[in-house]
């Protein structure tokens, strides 16, 4: 049972480069999320998708785009990476209704130099 | 701004010591409350959650948390910590009407010395 799978696990980018973080879940969840984790700030929501075909901005969406490719997959794209986007990125999924447990992937460590 | 605050950023304890990690939130009305744990190099895992009912919630691995509505608090406790409890702990809140959108506190790094 893989749960939430993210790739790549580690990535180093140069300023201005683009990249896409991939996320897939095998739990048939409707909702998916992308968070970034920075020291002392906890996790902050970048974008979320309440259900297939919909995406919405979270707390810190600037510099990112997302695609809900299908029910299983939710990708996060950095079009022009900046050093401020150096962070650990977590994908997560849950059933849509409030109160359902949110399951997290193992994280993607991104460094922008 | 509405937020979730964890006042202890780093805690160091010896094995068998008691643990209490503070969490306060500033949302009014109904809230759903969570504690997540992140062991070194691993993803976040749910420790416990509170939605309604008994304000004393028991979670996995001997952890519990108490919801005190008047204090806007949801502190995490464990009577006797083990070395394996070394991890980062996150309090999170879903304000009423926010669907399943978690807002996290800044986290508390716990180190348990053997």
Look at the structure and give the mean pLDDT of chain A: 92
SSE sequence of chain B, one letter per element: EEEEEEEEEEEE
Distance between the termini of chain B: 40 Å
Mean pLDDT of chain B: 91
Write down the Rg of chain B: 14 Å
**Range of helix content of chain B:** under 10%
Count of strand segments of chain A: 11
- What class would the helix/strand composition of chain B place it in? mainly beta
Explain this structure to me?
The complex is a heterodimer of chains A (113) and B (114). Chain A is an all-beta fold. Chain A has strands spanning 4-7, 10-13, 19-25, 31-38, 42-49, 56-57, 64-68, 74-78, 87-94, 103-104, 108-112. In chain A, strands 2, 4, 5, 6, 9, 10 and 11 form a 7-stranded mixed β-sheet that branches. Chain A is globular. In chain A, 36% of the residues are buried. Chain B is an all-beta fold and 114 residues long. Chain B contains no helices and 12 strands. Chain B has strands at residues 4-5, 10-14, 19-21, 24-25, 31-38, 44-50, 56-58, 64-68, 73-78, 87-95, 103-104, 108-113. In chain B, a hairpin with a 7-residue loop joins strand 10 and strand 11 (103-104). Chain B is globular. The chains are: A mainly beta (113), B mainly beta (114). The interface between A and B is medium-sized, with 27 and 24 residues.
Task: Summarize the SSE layout with pairings.
The complex is a heterodimer of chains A (113) and B (114).
Chain A lengths: L3 E4 L2 E4 L5 E7 L5 E8 L3 E8 L6 E2 L6 E5 L5 E5 L8 E8 L8 E2 L3 E5 L1
Parallel strand pairs in A: 2-11
Antiparallel strand pairs in A: 1-3, 3-8, 4-5, 4-9, 5-6, 7-8, 9-10, 9-11
Chain B lengths: L3 E2 L4 E5 L4 E3 L2 E2 L5 E8 L5 E7 L5 E3 L5 E5 L4 E6 L8 E9 L7 E2 L3 E6 L1
Parallel strand pairs in B: 2-12
Antiparallel strand pairs in B: 1-4, 3-9, 5-6, 5-10, 7-8, 8-9, 10-11, 10-12
Output the keywords.
heterodimer, A: 113 residues, mainly beta, 7-stranded mixed sheet, 4-stranded antiparallel sheet, 51% strand, globular, B: 114 residues, 6-stranded mixed sheet
